[in-house]
Specification:
With about 190 residues, the chain is α+β, with helices and mostly antiparallel strands. It has helices at about 5-25, 30-45, 45-55, 60-75, 80-90, 95-110, 125-140, 170-185; strands at about 115-120, 145-150, 160, 165-170.
């Protein structure tokens, strides 16, 4: 892992542990999950928000003011709003993407859940998703939440990532393997 990524992950883990413990003590885990969804949407859809959290051109005061306004507009819980304000004051907003993911992982772990990243050539039906989730539950022993994406270049099949394990049954992968095998022979 590169040094900056390692530092960001460490900072995110410390903040995530503190925020989750506070939310759990005050029985506000549901509110925290809602806040995480809103923040994820903001990071995904707003170039201005991404610039605010990553750009060094904004002063502490500018970041703090913007974060306070955003928290109010998004109706974030006091715990999340205060955490973001603290992060702005400490110039740590750049770790927000890692913090959101770490908090999601901590909440899922506490609930006995695990997330699986599923990439398919076309969108899975409800029945296919349910069958895949049930199969993964048997394998992992935990309730599985599927995060699905579509990548038409797979041609067919699935790529499933659960934790550090990956299962690639895509046609693209099989064609690449066949092509490599043919190069070795010829």
């Amino acid at each position: 892992m590169s040094e900056p990524a390692s530092i960001s992950t460490g900072i995110a883990q410390r903040y995530a542990t503190a925020v989750y413990e506070l939310a759990k003590e005050t029985k506000k885990v549901k509110a925290l999950e809602s806040d995480l969804d809103g923040l994820q949407d903001a990071m995904t859809n707003s170039d201005d928000f991404r610039a605010l959290i990553h750009s060094p051109i904004y002063s502490r005061d500018e970041q703090a003011g913007a974060i306070a306004a955003i928290a109010k507009k998004m109706k974030l819980s006091p715990t999340t709003a205060n955490t973001l304000s603290l992060m702005a004051a400490k110039r740590r907003l750049f770790v927000l993407p890692q913090l959101v993911q770490t908090l999601r992982d901590v909440i899922a772990e506490d609930k006995g859940e695990i997330a699986a990243e599923v990439t398919s050539a076309k969108a899975l039906t409800k029945a296919q998703s349910d069958k895949l989730a049930a199969s993964l539950k048997v394998t992992t022993g935990k309730t599985v939440t599927l995060n699905q994406t579509v990548d038409e270049s797979l041609i067919g099949g699935l790529i499933v990532k659960v934790g550090s394990k990956m299962i690639d049954t895509s046609i693209r992968s099989k064609l690449n393997s066949l092509q490599n095998a043919m190069k070795e022979v010829g």
